[in-house]
Structures are given as structure tokens and as C-alpha cells.
Amino acid sequence: MSRTVVVSGGGTGIGLAAARTFARDGDQVVLIGRRAEVLERAAAELPGAVACPADLTDPQQVARAAHFVCEEYGAVDVLVNNAGGDGRLEARGAAEDDPLAAVAGDWSLNFRLNVLTAVLLTEALRDHVASPGGRVLFLGSIAALRGSGRNAYGSAKAALHPYAFSLARELGPRGITVNVVAPGYVEETGFFGGEVPEERRRALVAETLTGRAGHPGDIAETLHWLASPHADHITAQVIQVNGGAERGR
């Protein structure tokens, strides 16, 4: 039976890979994100997919997107909270010439991009997640466990953990599971805003126990499995998908 799958940040990278994986099963995929043109291009390549542009840091736009989804499709079977980033691709204000203003701007931006987007969309749709059998999934990061050179980003991703755990407790009686998937270094995405220098790439790959970089499909297939009946008894977990890099060398 076809399911309704909502993917935030579904126009590129891991989000698009996840959308492709669900669409492959014949699921109805709804892509939500800020960049209308990017979403439209992605939706055009997926059978039956729909683009729903919205800035997920804006409560009014989130409410409109949720209303559209619920009016068109009713219950949401799978919600994939993928929208995020570490802020390096965002425009910077002149006030950030002040070191403390720069810190405040960086941390505020990362929490808006990674926490507020996920929380607002989830809260808008939580009463419409299919019961039983619904799935709520969050994209975390290895940085939430190990830290990184981008402290605001790792901290923002870590903030998703207690929210997901509380949500799992609240939604569990309805037969809904809630989990976090934590990628490590994943190639073929726009996360770094360009090519990663080869020396840095080698260092990231060397941290894994598998000797390779991650790919969007690795994360997409994990999300797909967690959304399947086979994962019905798995909830309130952080699933590490990073080749063992979280263990360190």
C-alpha cells in the first residue's frame, strides 16, 4: 500500500536520496524546503512527488505546509526531518565583525537550521502521523557525539536527541516510532559548499573502520528500513551510520 512520506530538505543530497528510495516503493513523497526551484526539479524526477516550498523556521509557513499535506493526503505515514546544515552556506551579517556577535549569530543560525526546522514541522504534523505504524525520523550527526570544528552545529544536532526521546515516549502508545540517524562524512552532498580538500577527505575516511566515505544512499536505506515494519520495535535510538567513525581510531 502506498504511504505518504514527507521529507524536509528533500531537494538535494541525503534528503533527495531518501525521497528516491521511498518513491521507488510507490510511496507518495512530499518534498518541503526553502528553495522552490530545487524542490521542483527534484519532484519532477520522482513519480508522483510534490514540491511544497516553505521556510521551516517560519511558524506561519510551516503551518501552511502542514495544512497542505493534511488536506491533500490525510495522515502522514513517514516524516523525515532532514533539513539542516552548519550555516556555512548562509549569508553573514555585517555585525559579525564583532567576535561575540559572530558567535551569537553562528549558534542562533545553527539552532534555527537544525533544531527549529525539525521541531516546528514535527509539532505541526504530530497529530496527523499515522496511528499505528507511523514513523518520525530525524537526521542527526556524528558531530553530536564526537564534536567537530563546528561546535554550534554539533550542539544543535545533539539537541535533537532529547526531543526525539521525549517524542518517542509520547507517541509510542499510538504505535509510532521515533529515531535519529547520525551520518558521518558523506560525499555527494552540498553540505561543504564545494569539494573537500583531498587531505581533509583522506583524514575523514581514515577515521572510519570501513575505509570509505559515506554516500547518500547509505543514509537513505537506513531511513527506509527504520520506516519499514521490520523496525517496528525500534524507537528512541540514535542509529550511527558512519562506518564506525564515532568510535574513533
Automatic annotation (TrEMBL):
Residues 3-189 form the Ketoreductase domain. Its EC number is 1.1.1.-. SUPFAM superfamilies: NAD(P)-binding Rossmann-fold domains (SSF51735). It holds the Pfam family adh_short_C2. It comes from the Bacteria. Keywords: Oxidoreductase. One of its GO terms (molecular function) is oxidoreductase activity. PANTHER family: 5-KETO-D-GLUCONATE 5-REDUCTASE, ALCOHOL DEHYDROGENASE, PUTATIVE (AFU_ORTHOLOGUE AFUA_3G03445)-RELATED. Belongs to the short-chain dehydrogenases/reductases (SDR) family. This is SDR family NAD(P)-dependent oxidoreductase.
